[in-house]
Amino acid sequence: KEKDKKDLEKVTVVLDWTPNTNHTGLYVAKDKGYFKEEGLDVEIIMPGEAGADQLTASGKADFGVSYQESITQARVQGVPLVSVAAVIQHNTSGFASPAEKNITSPKDFAGKTYGGWGSPVEKSVLDSLMKIEKANVADVSIVNMGDADFFTAVKRDIDFAWIYYGWTGVEAELRGEKINMVYLTDYSEKLDYYTPVLATNEKMIKNNPEIVKAFVKAASKGYGYTIENPNEAADILLKAAPDLDEQLVKKSQEWLAPRYQDDASRWGEQKLDVWKNYADWMFENGLLDKKLEAEKAFTNEFLPE
Amino acid sequence: MINNLLKGWRPALVLLLLFIIWEMAVKLADIPAWLLPPPTDILKEAIEGWGNFHEHLQSTIKLSLLGFVIGSSVGLLTAIILHLIPMVRESIYPLLILSQNVPIIVLAPLLVIWFGFGLMPKIIVITLVCFFPITVAALDGFRQTPNELKHYMMMAGANRRQLFWKLELPFSLPAIFSGLKISATYSVMGAVISEWLGAKSGIGVYMTLASSSFRTDRVFVAILFIMILSLLLFLLILLAEHFLVRWKRMEAERK
Amino acid sequence: MINNLLKGWRPALVLLLLFIIWEMAVKLADIPAWLLPPPTDILKEAIEGWGNFHEHLQSTIKLSLLGFVIGSSVGLLTAIILHLIPMVRESIYPLLILSQNVPIIVLAPLLVIWFGFGLMPKIIVITLVCFFPITVAALDGFRQTPNELKHYMMMAGANRRQLFWKLELPFSLPAIFSGLKISATYSVMGAVISEWLGAKSGIGVYMTLASSSFRTDRVFVAILFIMILSLLLFLLILLAEHFLVRWKRMEAERK
Amino acid sequence: MSLLSIENVSKRFGENEVIRGLSLDVKAGEFVSILGPSGSGKSTIFNLIGGLLTPDEGTIRLQKESIIGKRGSISYMPQTPSLLPWRTILHNVLLGQELQGNINREKAIEMIEKAGLKEYIHSYPHELSGGMKQRVAFIRALLSPQPIILLDEPFSALDEWTRLGMQKWLLDIWDSHRPTILFVTHNIEEALFLSDRIFVLSHRPSHVISELKVPFSRPRNEELLLENRFLESKRTIHFALKRSNRE
Amino acid sequence: MSLLSIENVSKRFGENEVIRGLSLDVKAGEFVSILGPSGSGKSTIFNLIGGLLTPDEGTIRLQKESIIGKRGSISYMPQTPSLLPWRTILHNVLLGQELQGNINREKAIEMIEKAGLKEYIHSYPHELSGGMKQRVAFIRALLSPQPIILLDEPFSALDEWTRLGMQKWLLDIWDSHRPTILFVTHNIEEALFLSDRIFVLSHRPSHVISELKVPFSRPRNEELLLENRFLESKRTIHFALKRSNRE
Ligand SMILES: Nc1ncnc2c1ncn2[C@@H]1O[C@H](COP(=O)(O)OP(=O)(O)OP(=O)(O)O)[C@@H](O)[C@H]1O
Ligand SMILES: Nc1ncnc2c1ncn2[C@@H]1O[C@H](COP(=O)(O)OP(=O)(O)OP(=O)(O)O)[C@@H](O)[C@H]1O
Ligand SMILES: [Mg+2]
Ligand SMILES: [Mg+2]
């Protein structure tokens, strides 16, 4: 068995944050031996403050969990990141607010306070959504809430914030706090981008395509298992990260399981339109210096048939 | 003073040398700019991006200065209270040391809950970072007041207040100034950290944005200005010391 | 020493009082536990979660100790080099001070990119946090060696090496130990920060996990242990000092 | 009639009995010395008079009033000059008055000039030599409003040559102002050269073993130190001390 | 035949001419004092002999060999005891030998015991009184292998009573070992009481203004200080110094 291990190709994958249900497929693939079947010995690493993208791009990590938004910005700056699979088919993020604030559609944003992390993207997104309902983003007071989490923030000063329903929204359900969600996908097609995605760097694709293929295949299998058995998959994640809150993981997993593949023909599929649309939108809003060559930013070629 | 500045040519030279080596290394090893930009790129970005950057810089300067003033006042006041009431000193001082081991980033959410997103939590963070060196330095200064001077003052009929204002406080000014020097440089760091608690502008904000949009050169511009700012604040305190504790300097020059 | 520990009852009492007030405040004001858990909850979690937590604790202890040993060695060595070669001191010392103003969190990604995920970048972070207080303290110690002792040694024919090993180094041991005490407590903080650079276990990891799954009580357990650990390391150095610089303590007791 | 009178004072620090049944008195305008070996409790006597310590027994009276535990009723010049390094000479000299509340700037300037320190009036203490600093400390004591000056071995930290100069200077000043002075020293020559009366103390626990009226007329000058009658007086005190040691 | 001879030595620090054409010599087994006012360059002379400074002019010879700029060729006892606080008395005493490379532990223990410090042999310096520390410093100098001991005002920091005790002790030790000693002081009595010959220095720039053979026989005791012939010698030196000041 020792000898087996030596023959395995050592591969590292760096997460975008702390382990959560976005990553379950990777943990399943590791735990169930799918990676090993493909000849890989995978190590999963948390990036801490280091930032997953730089690590993946520089080759310190072979793969990373990233976002379409990041990869778009990165590629424009010459950072050689490529997305190889979409973890979740549609954007599950949206603007959340405590139910008593009565924020149910973008026009309700007016006169309220939004808590963000200080990126110019936020204002543009708010603007796009509000324009649809003929409201003006200038009426929203945007406050940077830094490292504070959603629940903390809405206790003070803040009326609504941008969250992933699959994690923070589920936590709200668990706490019995009623929240309203305004999903991006409900209002704009351009904003239905892939988040998160699995990424690697160009060098990896050029020099070790077989490893990329093997990795994506095993990951696909892992997410497949998760879709079928959310409860068992959640247990595997909890085993790997026992400090996570069990209830939250279970419930979040249940919520997310049908959304990994959703309406796509296979897990991980990415469409050129989605990449193009979003990059165009960013460019139009002055969020990019240059236009993105969307064809080079992602590839479906490593996904199993 | 001017002497000291002139002496600075040697470290400046070393710094220049470091920059040249850095530039060469980046060029020769063909390191991509997003990984480690060469100094010339950083300089270029600092100049080109100035129009956008100076606003951030301004708000950080304001925040650091305000935080420093409040933080060091709190520090000095704490020292005075601890000094004048020995019982408080014995019960609180060890806890103050302990307080320096609470990671500030962990406190952040609590501060936000209690004080919202305004100026208050930021000032608290800077104060937490700033006050301790001054408290320690001032307490040391008070305690090190020579016994002979105290004895003379007491024999000559000084009361507790006169003893403090006419002897202990002026005597510990040099010590307080060394505390101020440390705090001054910390206050810039503290301001940047506190901006991560949510701010609209500031070097901290600029830096997060830069790093999330892969502008490593801008991250370095931010570092550069943090260092320059720290240095300037340090020099400011040095200048104040130069005028306020003349006697100590003159004494030192004599030796 | 034992005296000093016994004196600790007063701060301990204040601490206890603080905890009681905290508990009462939380209970009376009905603050939700995810916002600010009462001390009893934290204690309960510390005990119940121990089986899972002690692994994290162990790896942080190992990392802190290793980092501290390496960091303080680097610090001491730097001080010795700066002391023995005045030209190096003049050119490098100001830069060292400047180096303390680079926010470590900004350096982190660069360190990981340059040195990977191994032990190396973590040790570098702890070293950066640790070395400076020791360098400053040791340099001060070397420089404060009384002139009369130096003069005697030189008149008696001591060469540079003898002067350093027989006079300057032993004389500055107490100063070095005060540097070590500061560095020791910093090293725990440094280790926690360095774990944010990507580690599999450690209090830093535990803390991020806890905070990302909204377990405020666990975050406080982490803070609690960081403080305890810092305190223990501090006491360890105090103990070492107790045995190594007997003479200074005895001298002080005389006064 | 005595200005200061100490009667039957005793003081112990725990086990350590320092003073036992000590009595002495100082008349207005007199220069009185207390001569005693190191550790015999001379500084302790001053601390008792100055109100920093209270005696276990006995009375201490200044102008008939008890000053036990009362600070600030005497003017004091310590062994080290104890000037505040951040004050100019003028402001240092004024300190004694400042603590008592009324400042006389003109008088201070006049005294400093008389002491030959005119050019140093706005200098800081570190710019002065040891002897000059002691002069400033003495002027400070002289300017304080209290009726008696205590001097605690003011010259023992100076080197011999400077010390002699200071002694001569002190005699000069004293001759022209005639303040009441209680002087502490362990140097027989110094006590003889300066004072009207000398109280010789025993070893701990100390009390007065002999009181001596100094037989030399004033003004005195340096040559006195080398005269045979001076050596004679010195011998007397020396043997008195030796005898008390043997007891 | 002289063990140490200094000929025509001059030294200036920038503008400040400290020594001008100074000559003196010390024979083996002799106790020679240099007597001079403060700041006359006495310590500078020692630094020249010890090799810390080099003279601008002149020669310094030890046993016929030039020792200009050569450190470690003399044994030295400074004004302050300069004991290392982290070493026990025994290890402090051994320091002089240690620096030269060969250690004689037995001899050291013997000497410490002779000096009456037997119970302090493993104590640390802070446990000793000022006088005791100076004894240790002297033993350290005595045990160093060099043929001459320089003593730079070793007793001037002690109070008068301890100082007298130390002088008597030094005379005792010297009588039994007869080391060669060059002693610096600004105290006329001390020089007269201790030495065989005295070189009296002028003010800066200093040179020898008079050389004096001390007329008292050995062993000497304390009473000598109170005799008339002692006062006589003191007067001689005093007036010699006074004359040179006036020049
Ligand atoms: N505050 C105090 N507490 C305890 N002991 C004291 C205190 N002040 C003085 N002593 C003791 O009293 C004794 C006499 O001390 P004091 O300073 O009065 O002597 P002194 O005659 O002035 O000596 P010196 O000539 O050295 O100045 C000493 O043994 C000293 O230890
Ligand atoms: N290294 C030096 N650099 C410049 N000047 C010096 C140096 N050493 C001594 N001097 C000057 O030389 C003069 C004589 O000093 P020195 O210490 O030799 O006198 P001294 O006779 O030993 O005095 P004291 O009795 O006070 O010890 C002084 O004016 C001093 O300022
Ligand atoms: Mg005294
Ligand atoms: Mg000298």
Automatic annotation (TrEMBL), chains B, C:
Its main location: membrane. It comes from the Bacteria. Keywords: Cell membrane, Membrane, Transmembrane, Transmembrane helix, Transport. GO terms for biological process: transmembrane transport. GO terms for cellular component: plasma membrane. It is a multi-pass membrane protein. InterPro entries: MetI-like (IPR000515), MetI-like_sf (IPR035906). It is found in: Cell membrane. Residues 57-237 form the ABC transmembrane type-1 domain. Pfam families: BPD_transp_1. The chain crosses the membrane at residues 63-85, 92-117, 123-142, 163-180, 219-245. PANTHER family: ABC TRANSPORTER PERMEASE PROTEIN HI_0355-RELATED (PTHR30151:SF20), ALKANE SULFONATE ABC TRANSPORTER-RELATED, MEMBRANE SUBUNIT (PTHR30151). Belongs to the binding-protein-dependent transport system permease family. This is Nitrate ABC transporter permease.
TrEMBL record, chains D, E:
Residues 4-228 form the ABC transporter domain. Gene3D superfamilies: P-loop containing nucleotide triphosphate hydrolases (3.40.50.300). GO terms for molecular function: ATP binding; ATP hydrolysis activity. Pfam families: ABC_tran (PF00005). InterPro entries: AAA+_ATPase, ABC_transporter-like_ATP-bd, ABC_transporter-like_CS, ABC_transporter_ATP-bind, P-loop_NTPase. The keyword Secreted does not apply. Keywords: ATP-binding, Nucleotide-binding, Transport. The keyword Transcription regulation does not apply. This is ABC transporter ATP-binding protein. It comes from Cytobacillus solani. The lineage of its organism: Bacteria, Bacillati, Bacillota, Bacilli, Bacillales.
